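Schema walk-through. Below, the input block comes first and the output block second. Nothing else is stored per chain. Lengths vary across the set, and this one has 80 residues.
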Amino acid sequence: MPNVIYCYSGTGNSLAAARLVAGKLPNTEGISMLSLRDNSMIPTAYERVGFSFPTCFGHPPKIVSQIGKSLYLEESYNSK
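--- output ---
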């Protein structure tokens, strides 16, 4: 099964970190976290899901918090 890292980066540092990690893991792709704004469902086709984003004084950017609060995993056919 593939892996995914959802990334939000303001200056490029979080994107660089996500690319570094994705390059070390087999079958891993990086996707912009902003793609989850309109569709907050994470497909269950992924074995592992990671997130990369900056923090400021220990808090994520507002857009990351908003996206994170609306996320949910697609129901797996195996869980029925």
